[in-house]
Amino acid sequence: MVNIKDIAKLAGVSVTTVSRVLNNYPYISDEKKAAVLKAVQMTDYQQNMNAVSLRTGHTSLIGVVLPFSHHPYFGLLLNGIANEAIKHNHKLLLFQTNYEVEKEIEALRMLKEKRIDALIFCSRTCDWPIIQEYFPYGKIVLCEKIRDGSVSSTFVDHYKTFMGALDYLYDKGHRKIGYCIGRRSGTNSLDREAAYKDFITKHNLPFHSDYIYDHCLTFEDSIKVINKVKESNNPPSALLVTSDQTAAGIVTCCQKETISIPEDLALIGFDNQPIAKMMNITTFDIPYKEIGKKVFLQAIKDEISQEEITATFIERNTV
Amino acid sequence: MVNIKDIAKLAGVSVTTVSRVLNNYPYISDEKKAAVLKAVQMTDYQQNMNAVSLRTGHTSLIGVVLPFSHHPYFGLLLNGIANEAIKHNHKLLLFQTNYEVEKEIEALRMLKEKRIDALIFCSRTCDWPIIQEYFPYGKIVLCEKIRDGSVSSTFVDHYKTFMGALDYLYDKGHRKIGYCIGRRSGTNSLDREAAYKDFITKHNLPFHSDYIYDHCLTFEDSIKVINKVKESNNPPSALLVTSDQTAAGIVTCCQKETISIPEDLALIGFDNQPIAKMMNITTFDIPYKEIGKKVFLQAIKDEISQEEITATFIERNTV
DNA sequence: TTGTATGCGTTATCAG
DNA sequence: CTGATAACGCATACAA
Questions:
Q1: Is 0.85 surpassed by the pTM of this model?
Q2: N or C: which end of chain A has fewer CB within 10 A?
Q3: Reduced to 3 states, what is the DSSP secondary structure of residue B60?
Q4: How would DSSP label each residue in A70-114?
Q5: Backbone angles phi, psi at B192, to 5 degrees
Q6: How many CB atoms lie within 10 A of CB B111?
C-alpha cells in the first residue's frame, strides 16, 4: 500500500509538503502542490486514518447509540444527526443496542479506545454511574433531562407533555385513562410515570396498575393492548400511546373488534409520524430532526449545554 | 492518558511483556502477568486502538451499509449480522445511506482508509464498477446474486421466488397481476421485473405499466397504491407486495374503502414480518437472520463464496 | 515556502 | 520466558 513517503518521493518533495497539501495548508507553491496532487492521483493514494488519528488524537467520528434501528422514532432522530454531521465533515458510527447494557458499554469503550471523538445516546439503559466513568474520554451527549449539568443534552420535557395530555383528556371528561409505553425503566418513561401518578393524585382518581401497558413500540404490539382492554371488566376510556406506530395498530385492531374510536376508546399518540396523519390520530408532534441537529452540535462543541424542545399538540380524530 | 509505557514502568516489566499480557500470549510468568494486570486495573488503562490498528493493519471492525435503519427488513438482517459479530469478537459500524451513492462511497472509503476490515452491503445503489474499485482494500460482501465470482454474497433468488408467486396467482385464476416494490433500479428489483416480464410473455398477458407501483416500503406507502387502484378503470385483481409493511397498509386501506380481500384484490407479501402474521397476510418467509449470519461469516473469511437462500411460501388468508 | 527530525502508542523481530 | 529496538504512517516543532 502506498504511503505518504512514496508520494513525497514521486512528487520530488518532502513528506511535510505532502502532508500540507493533503491538509490544505496555505503557503505552498503551486508547482509543488500540483506535483503532489498528481502523485496522489496516479497512485490512488489514501491516508491511513489510523495513523492520522494516532497522531492528531481525534477521528472526526461520532458514535450514535440507539436501541433499535427499526423504529421510526429513531429513524427521524438519526436523520437529523446525519444531516448535521455531513455539514461538519464528520462521520457517524451507529451502535444498535437493543437496550442491552453490554452493548452500550461497548460503545462507551470505543470512546476510551480513541476510536470515536464523542458519543450520542439517543436512549440508554445503563445506569448513570457507568456513563460518568467515561466522561474523561470524550464528549457524551444525551436525549434526556439531566439533573446535574455534567453533560450536554437535548430533551423533551416528558413530564410536562404527558401531564398536558392527561389534563386535556380530563377536560374532555375522561376519568379512566391508561397509557402505553415502550419500557418501564428509561428516564423518559420514569418522567411520564411520575406525571401519571401526580395526575391521578391531583384528581383523586384510583390507580389501576393494569392501565399501564408496556412493551409498546411497534404496530403489532397493539394486539396485546387491545386483548387486555377487551378482557378487562373496567377498561380505560382513553389511552395515551407513546408511539404512533402502536396507536395506529390500536386503531386497526379496534376496527376489527368493533370498538369505536373515540367513543369507546380515545387515543392520543406521540411522535406525529406519517402513519398518524394517515390514520387521523391525535398526537404530539416532536421535532426529532431538530433534536438530532442540536445533539450533534453539542457533540462537537466544547461547552456543555442543555436544550429543551417542546412537543406540539396536533388535534385530529381520535379523542 | 496512560499508555503502555506507563504500565510497563508501574509493573516493573518491559512494554513487550505488557503487550503480551494484553494479547494473551502463552509464555509469561504468573508473577509478571499479575503485576501487569494489577497496573492495568489501577490506572484504568485502555489500549489506544488507533495505534493497535496502525501497527497490526486491521481493526476488528466490520462496516454494514443499509439504506434505512427504520425498515424491519433491515432490522432483522442486522440482527443476524450482529449476533454473529459478537461471537467472533468483532464490532459493527453501521452506515445509513438512504440509497444515496455518495454515502455508499463514504463507507467504501473507510475500507481504503483502513478504518474497517470489511464491508457488508445489505443493499446498494452505486454501480458495480464503483464497488470494484475498492476490492483491493478489504473484503466486500453483498446480498445479491453476483454474476462473476469476484466477491462473496448471500442472496435470495428473487427471480425464482417472484415467478413462483406469479404462477401461484395464475393458477388461482388471476390474470391481472400487479406488484409493489421499493424502488425500480436495485439488482433485486431488476430480477423481479425480469420475472414479471417473462411471466406475462409466457402467458401472453398484456403489459400494464401502471400495474407496477414503486416507492412501496412503509405502511403508509399503501395509500398511494390503493388510490391508484381505485382510480383505475381496469385495476389489478392481485398484487405482489415486496414488503409486508406495505401489504399490511393495503389491508388497512381496503377495509376503509370496502375493497374486500381476497375477493376484490388478492395479496401476497414478502418477509413474513410479525405484522403479516397479525393481519393474516399470505407471504414469503425470508430467513433474514440466517442471511445476516452467513454474510458476516463471509466478511471475515478469506475465501470467496456464494450462498443461496430460499424463501418459503406461507399461505394465509389474502389470496 | 520548504525540509529534517521527532514522536503518537502499539506490536513484531530478534537476540538473549 | 523476557527485553531492546525497529517500524507502522502520519503531523508538527523547529530550523532554514
A1: yes
A2: N
A3: coil
A4: S-HHHHHHHHHHHHHHHHTT-EEEEEE-TT-HHHHHHHHHHHHTT
A5: -70, -40
A6: 21
Task: Provide CATH 3.40.50.2300 ranges for chain A.
Answer: 60-156+288-310, 158-285
Of A205, A40, A199, A68, give the one whose Cα is nearest residue A125.
Answer: A68
Cβ-proximal residues to B293 (8 Å cutoff; 6+ apart), any chain: B80, B81, B83, B84
B125 Cβ contact partners less than 8 Å away, ≥ 6 residues apart: B67, B97, B99, B100, B101, B104, B185, B186
* pLDDT above 90: residue B96: no
The domain over range A60-156+288-310 is classified in CATH as 3.40.50.2300:
yes
- B94 and A95: CB-CB below 8 Å? yes
Q: Considering just the CA atoms, what is the radius of gyration of chain A in Å? A: 25
Average pLDDT for residues B84-100, to the nearest whole number?
A: 91
Cell numbers that stand for A18 in this block = 505532502
What distances in angstroms separate CA A35 from CA A4, A8, A43, A144, one per listed residue? 13, 9, 12, 52
The SS3 assignment for B44 reads coil
| A105 in reach of chain B (CB within 8 A) | no
pLDDT of residue B69: 67
Q: What percent of chain B has pLDDT over 90?
A: 89
- Cβ contact B250:B224 at 8 Å: no
The domain over range B4-47 is classified in CATH as 1.10.260.40: yes
A154 contacts: CB under 8 Å, gap ≥ 6: A141, A143, A291, A294, A295, A298, A306, A307, A308, A309
CATH 1.10.260.40 domain position(s) in chain B? 4-47
Which residues, 6 or more positions from A189, have their beta carbon under 8 angstroms from its beta carbon? A181, A182, A183
Nearest to A48 among B96, B113, B223 (CB): B113
Which CATH homologous superfamily contains domain A158-285? Response regulator (3.40.50.2300)
Q: Where are the alpha helices (DSSP H) in B69-127?
A: 72-87, 101-112
C1’ C11 / CA B54, Å: 9
B299, pLDDT greater than 90:
yes
**H or E, element range at A20:** helix A15-22
Query: Which residue, among B4, B50, B133, B250, would best test binding to A if mutated, counting the most A CBs under 10 Å from its CB?
Result: B50
- Yes or no: say if A238 and A266 are a contact pair by the CB < 8 Å rule: yes
Q: How far is CA B169 from CA B179, B232, B244, B262, in A?
A: 12, 21, 17, 11
Number of residues that this document lists for chain A: 319
